[in-house]
Design brief:
GO terms for molecular function: ATP binding. Pfam families: ABC_tran. This protein is an alpha/beta fold and 235 residues long. 37% of the residues lie in helices and 26% in strands. It folds into two domains: 157 residues, P-loop containing nucleotide triphosphate hydrolases (Rossmann fold, 3-Layer(aba) Sandwich); 71 residues, no CATH class. The structure holds adenosine-5'-diphosphate. Adenosine-5'-diphosphate (ADP) binds next to strand 2 and helix 1.
Length: 235
């Protein structure tokens, strides 16, 4: 369970998050929708510890994670897949995945091996290409690699920022398929996605964001809530 209450954050003098409150539970996709520049990425980065909150609380299964160092938050079970994917040049797919093992500190060598094998089974495209340089993968495969690297740490909560930006429709289907599978396996996924129609199909609860605030929240299964969302963000 992720509970965010009255979260504020600044970039210098700019008050970017102005009191964001949202919640999500295991086994659901929670989506953040809104125009460019309203603060969606900042919400995700603040939860992950990449941006320090000025006030408010962030609780993960009851533990206060607000303002803690990012690597600590990671080890507490929260993973982030940033928009820029961060595939490391000069490293193979497998070596990129091994970088995800830093989240598994304290586990034995065989447990780490198992964590890698489990993720490769889940991402057959990556398994086939494990010896290939990560930067030579297609955009969609790089997105999968970024997701898979985080999954090596077996997080309970996954924050995913714009996973399908610039990708071909076929690979977009695959990425939504992976998101659905992870959700059904019990992960909480907090998703930022411009393709509202695609995202809404996998979402349970959504939050519409404007100027660093939640302007309304609704259930994706509710037709009135969906109508209101489409009216608000003019898709
Ligand atoms: P969104 O994800 O909704 O497009 P962002 O969270 O990326 O919005 O950005 C919210 C606002 O904060 C924007 O006005 C953006 O220009 C500004 N911003 C984002 N990152 C930084 C930064 N590192 N320093 C200063 N301003 C930033």
């Amino acid at each position: 369970m992720l509970e965010i209450t009255d979260l504020h954050a600044h970039y210098g003098l700019s008050h970017v998050l102005q009191g964001v409150t949202l919640t999500g539970a295991a086994g659901e996709v929670v989506s953040l929708f809104g125009r460019n520049g309203v603060g969606k990425t900042t919400i995700i980065k603040t939860i992950a510890g990449w941006v320090r909150p000025t006030s408010g609380s962030i609780r993960l299964d009851g533990a206060d994670i607000g303002g803690r160092p990012a690597d600590r938050i990671c080890r507490m079970g929260l993973g982030i897949v940033p928009e820029d994917r961060r595939i490391f040049p000069g490293l193979s797919v497998l070596e990129n995945l091994e970088l995800g093992l830093h989240q598994t500190a304290g586990r034995s060598r065989s447990e780490k091996r198992e964590a890698l094998d489990r993720v490769l089974e889940r991402f057959p495209r990556l398994k086939e290409r494990r010896a290939q340089m990560g930067t030579t993968l297609s955009g969609g495969e790089q997105q999968m690699l970024a997701m898979a690297r985080v999954m090596v740490g077996a997080p309970r909560v996954l924050l995913i920022d714009e996973p399908t930006e610039g990708l071909a429709p076929m690979i977009v289907d695959e990425i939504f398929g992976i998101i659905t599978t992870l959700r059904d396996q019990g992960l909480l996924i907090l998703l930022v996605e411009q393709n509202v129609h695609r995202a809404i199909a996998v979402t349970s609860r959504f939050y519409a964001i404007e100027r660093g605030q939640v302007v309304f929240t609704g259930s994706a299964a509710n037709a009135d809530d969906r109508e209101r969302l489409f009216g608000t963000i003019a898709v």
